[in-house]
Structure formats: C-alpha cells, structure tokens
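Narrative of accomplishments. A recurring question from our advisory board has been how the design workflow behaves on a single, concrete structure rather than in aggregate. To address it, we present the structure tokens for one chain from the evaluation set, followed by the sequence designed for it. No filtering or post-editing was applied between the two.
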C-alpha cells in the first residue's frame, strides 16, 4: 500500500500493457495476462519533470483482475 500511495502522488502520463495488446484480443487464459505499465512524471532537477515507469502483474481471481507486484 505504501508503494501505491507513493505512485499516486505522481502525475500519470501513460498507461499500457506489456506486451501491448489490442482491445479486441484480450487474453482469456490466466497464464497469458500482460503486465500493466504506468508511466508517471516526477519533479526532476532543473525544474523539468522526469518520466519513470512502474509495472504491476495482473492475475485473475474470482472473475476479477488483481494487481500484484
């Protein structure tokens, strides 16, 4: 929860999946779920934002998708 709280304090730049998947080809098998990729911006030196990425694994349980480290 601490990691998630820290990530939420940064501006979301982009969200995607690794590997990328088209909307119409979402995998139904649990073993084939992609990772969730968040691109976030943090204040950097010199007044410019630095973009960094955070990744979460996706898993299915009880008919829902869950985020895991």
């Amino acid at each position: 929860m601490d990691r998630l709280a820290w990530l939420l304090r940064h501006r979301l730049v982009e969200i995607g999946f690794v590997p990328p998947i088209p909307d119409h080809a979402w995998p139904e098998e649990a073993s084939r779920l992609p990772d969730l990729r968040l691109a976030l911006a943090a204040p950097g030196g010199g007044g410019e934002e630095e973009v960094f990425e955070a990744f979460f694994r996706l898993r299915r349980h009880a008919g829902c998708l869950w985020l895991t480290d």
